[in-house]
Design brief:
The structure holds 2 protein chains of 2 kinds.
Chain A (H helix, E strand, L loop, with lengths): L8 H12 L4 E3 L4 E2 L7 H22 L5 E3 L4 E2 L13 H15 L5 E3 L10 H16 L4 E3 L3 E2 L4 E2 L1 H19 L5 H4 L1 H7 L9 H10 L11 H6 L5 H15 L7 H18 L4
Parallel strand pairs in A: 1-3, 2-4, 5-6
Antiparallel strand pairs in A: 7-8
Chain B lengths: L2 H11 L5 H11 L4 H21 L5 H24 L7 E6 L7 H12 L3 E4 L6 H11 L3 E5 L7 H12 L7 E5 L5 H6 L4 E2 L3 H11 L4
Parallel strand pairs in B: 1-2, 1-3, 3-4, 4-5
The chains are: A mainly alpha, B alpha/beta.
Chain lengths: 278, 213
Amino acid sequence: MVSPLVSTFEAIDKLIFAATHRVPLVFTPCPIAGGTAPITGAGIITMGAAESWMGLTLAQTLQPGLPFFMGGVFSAMDMNTMILAYGAPELPLYMAGLTELAHYAGLPLWQTGGCTDSKVFDGQAMIEGGSSVFFSALTSGDMCHDVGYTESAMTGSLFQLCAMDEAIGYARRIVRGIEVNDDTLAVSVIKEIGPNNHYLRHAHTRKYYKSEYFYPKLLDRQDFENWEASGSMTMKDRTIARVRDLLATHKASPIKPETQKVIEKVLAEAEDRVKDKK
Amino acid sequence: MSRTLERISTAILEGDAEKSPKLVEKALAEGTTAKEILDNALLAGMQEVGVRFRAGDMFVPEVLMSAEAMQEAMVILRPVLVASGVKLIGKVLLGTVKGDLHDIGKNLVGMMCEGAGFEIIDIGFNAEPEKFIEAIKQHQPQVVGMSAMLTTTMRAMGHTIKAIEEAGLRDTVKVMVGGAPVDAEFAKRIGADGYGSNGPAGSELAKKFVGAA
């Protein structure tokens, strides 16, 4: 979509291809409040939903029952820099509104989160990315994208992506909630242990300590002395180290050789198509 | 400076498009020259708008209201300026390049340039290189501004500059480029004369090109 209310040839072309071949579809507008959409949250959601549903209507006309995701990045235009703000609180807020609308209409939604307007790995990037990850989890979108985007979506950052993996784990633990039943209420355990004792050795602790907690890979909980002894690494240092380690050691799950061949052929054709363009 | 000129400046600063042309009429009736009104009231007002915007005290919607107040004032003043033989600051030709439908940034540059006193020729979006060349020949602008919002269409800006070169018109214009994926280094690489990161930056650049900044 090119908001407001226009779709490009390429977008419709892809929609028709997907619908004809029964490929599930995410149809995603990217309206910017105050610029290419109304400035109000209610207004941008109304217009953006209409844009999504234009795609829905066309796709369902071509292929009734085609799986369809509403989507998007709904956020604010910064009125000083004119950027589409990927770190603004309006992004998770508008996306939450859109998610509620989509679910009310019985459609899954492609959420947005883990992105930032910061240019580097810093406090801003962590506040903005972490907040939108958490809010996206709270609103229970059905997929989530733009995780790791920095500089208002101009740059994809592996460091941001890796740090947001941690934020996602954190957020998922919270939305998993508190399970309440006789066993988790642990009344008998409380009686059994009684006062002036501890729970560390109890079978109840051993039973739940793995599933009850989120175990961070990057967030540091050492005391000062041990932290200092292990190199005084900041969150940024640890994230960079983990990205380098993953890049050096991670092995992607193998794909079938014939699939690999088709991918290579498609890439070669694409390369051939653009090689003379500068 | 007369009281009326001060009021015109204030109307520009406050984005009052109803008052600004009426005040220009009043100033003319009081015998102030068109050139004085332009320099000491309108452009002075827009200058202050620029200062406040850069300081973060004004935001784009307000800046656009000021540009509109300037445009309305120019409707009255332009014929008088032309009749008295005053040369306007210059012409800016604007277009969003081939393949791209995103023209909001280009339109902002246009409004800001108009606010700075330029005459604008806007050839719209999805504009082929030929359309730029034709418009340069017809309107003879000092500045050509082009925009693209996608990494897939930004290359068309380079193609357009090349086409302008091949048409033998490159030395007649200064070229400025802008758009979300564009930066100063890219601008340099494709042979543009400058890059602006937003509307106000675009008009500052155009002013620099014609020696008015």
